[in-house]
Design brief:
By secondary structure, the protein is α+β, with helices and mostly antiparallel strands. Helix content is 32%, strand content 15%. It is built from 16 helices and 14 strands. The strands form two sheets. The chain has an eight-stranded antiparallel β-sheet. A six-stranded antiparallel β-sheet has the order 10-11-1-12-13-14, with helices on both faces. A hairpin with a 4-residue loop joins strand 3 and strand 4. Helix 4 packs across helix 5.
Length: 566
């Protein structure tokens, strides 16, 4: 019988066994010409036993390829079988396979091999556009950086193999707060002992507690890095009390130094939030300030119960912006009516807020349907407000600002707060991390890890030498500015840098009080003479933050002028 043509029916349909037989026939036909053809350049010869059997149910690799069909981009380069990057030519590491392939950003402390550094050399070449107006100084960045990668056409050999005397001199200069003033350009940076000592000085910071086998920064999201490490205090309450008592002494010592203007600022890093304490005169404020981010509703309620007065600057800014927008809309809509009723009182009505829920239903009475619509009761209104407050938890908008004498109350609150330390998990019983640019009681001197790497990058049709300097560790604002001052002189005013930020601290760049005028520079230098910072660094940190909720991601200097991208 002749087969009837049915719509949607394919007469060439075959069952799976028949499909497999066709695949085998195609492989046999292609074996003879493939065996006679020479292997491609660089490919290892493969015997008949090395032919892998294809999966008949695969939708990608099972289909036969036409002659001349290119391979997919992701198969253009594969790592060697032994898994070592040294088996691959170095120039291949510098050329990305595909620009559309997303790159995975690992944690800063993990990305320390040559593969990741060459990947960063390429990513820096495609950094978004920077501001068109170069400046002689970049804005203060109060976020903590976890990794810096500087690049220049001049080598960084002056950072390598410091002598014992240079290292000791750098530590002494840090402890004595010695100011180092370098010329605008150095002809032989490697031979400059003053430059090498200042480089060692810029890498020093102070930490508490000091547990060398644990990574104590960052603390937010650090459980997977601490899990499995020895923590004898997690099950020993007496040891936990000893650690917290020692931590309280160090915390109080830092605050006393801050109050005496001998310490410019310090950070308190817990497993849930970070606190930045700044001395009076910094960030455009004439009083001591403490910034907490991120916060939760429970933390804010506990602070209110302790009598700590604080504000939510970003929430208040959002409300004022909405209020201004609503006022502009109302003025635009009622422009004609204002012209007619110009003889009436010119008093402005307050903008509607969330607290006036009872008055917001007055329009129902005008329509005469107030009895038919059920108004929400006080409990529903409170639940709605609480829901809005909970929604901003763990977000940058939850940033809290404490000013003046309330910072001392905050100090006592944090010392006695039970939720400051985790009760379960890898960080159980571990006190928060204290980071400071100056020495304090119980603090341990630490240094940032630095290393220089030389590589070749393809620029147009040739290869050029790219010299890089990597700084790893908790890079605080003063260290970032000190390093750029050294690079300015050593690299002859031409370098670029890619910065990796601890994201929960990026919101510290918000201008918290724009109602008061900026402080005078003479007043700042008079009040903070012995805080341990270089005068130029002090000038930068005394300015009001201008980066808002972002931080500097890319910094470039050309002809001794800065441009940056946040």
């Amino acid at each position: 019988m002749a087969a009837h043509t049915v719509p949607g029916y394919s007469p060439g349909f075959k069952k799976p066994p028949a499909v497999l037989r066709l695949k085998r026939k195609r492989l046999r036909r292609s074996e003879s010409p493939a065996a006679a053809a020479p292997p491609p350049c660089g490919a290892a010869p493969r015997g008949p036993s090395a032919l892998a059997r294809r999966n008949p149910f695969s939708s990608l690799d099972n289909a036969p390829r036409a002659a001349g069909t290119p391979q997919p981009l992701e198969r253009a380069w594969r790592p060697p079988a032994d898994g070592y990057p040294s088996a691959v030519p170095f120039w291949q590491l510098l050329e990305p396979v595909s620009e559309d392939k997303p790159t995975r950003r690992a944690e800063p402390y993990e990305r320390t091999d040559i593969l990741t550094l060459t990947d960063d050399l390429h990513s820096s070449a495609t950094v978004p556009e920077v501001p068109s107006s170069p400046k002689h100084e970049f804005p203060a960045d109060w976020s903590i950086k976890t990794r810096l990668l500087f690049m220049s056409s001049q080598p960084f050999t002056w950072t390598e193999h410091l002598k014992a005397q240079e290292e000791a001199q750098g530590f002494a200069q840090h402890c004595r707060a010695v100011e180092t003033n370098l010329p605008q350009s150095l002809q032989e940076p490697k031979l400059s002992t003053e430059l090498r000592c200042a480089f060692q000085q810029s890498l020093v910071y102070w930490l508490h507690p000091s547990l060398p086998w644990l990574q104590l920064f960052p603390r937010i999201g650090a459980d997977r890095k601490i899990v499995g490490k020895a923590s004898p205090w997690s099950q020993d309450e007496d040891l936990q009390q000893v650690l917290m008592s020692d931590w309280s002494v160090s915390f109080t010592s830092l605050y006393n130094l801050l109050k005496a203007k001998l310490c410019p600022y310090f950070y308190v890093c817990t497993y849930q939030f970070t606190v930045l304490f700044r001395a009076a005169g910094l960030a455009g404020s004439d009083v001591i300030t403490a910034v907490i981010s991120p916060t939760t509703r429970g933390l804010r309620e506990a602070m209110r119960n302790e009598g700590i007065e604080f504000s939510l600057p970003l929430v208040e800014e959002s409300k004022s912006r909405k209020q201004k927008n609503s006022e502009v809309n109302l003025e635009a809509e009622g422009a004609n009516s204002l012209e007619v009723d110009n003889s009436m009182d010119g008093g402005e009505e307050p903008a509607p807020s969330d607290d006036d829920d009872d008055e917001s239903f007055s329009w129902l009475e005008e329509m005469g349907v107030q009895d038919k619509v059920k108004k929400p009761d006080a409990i529903s209104i409170k639940l709605r407000k609480d829901n809005r407050e909970v929604q901003m938890d763990h977000k940058p908008q939850s940033l809290a600002l404490v000013k003046g004498t309330n910072t001392f109350t905050l100090l006592n609150f944090l010392i006695n707060c039970k939720s400051l330390v985790a009760v379960a998990g890898p960080q159980a019983g571990l006190p928060p991390t204290l980071l400071s640019p100056v020495a304090f009681r119980g603090g341990t001197m630490q240094t940032l890890k630095a290393r220089s790497i030389n590589a070749k990058a393809r620029v147009r049709l040739a290869y050029e030498n790219i010299f890089s300097l990597e700084i790893v560790g908790p890079v605080m604002p003063h260290s970032l500015h000190a390093l750029t001052m050294l690079l300015k002189a050593a690299q002859r005013g031409a370098f670029s840098g890619v910065f990796y930020t601890h994201e929960p601290t990026a919101v510290f760049n918000t201008d918290l009080d724009d109602t008061h005028p900026a402080l005078n520079e003479e007043t700042v230098h008079k009040d903070l003479p012995a805080c341990g910072l270089h005068p130029k660094t002090l000038d930068q940190l005394s300015q009001r933050p201008t980066l808002r909720k972002s931080s500097i991601r890319f910094l470039e200097m050309k002809d001794y002028a800065y441009t940056w991208k946040s």
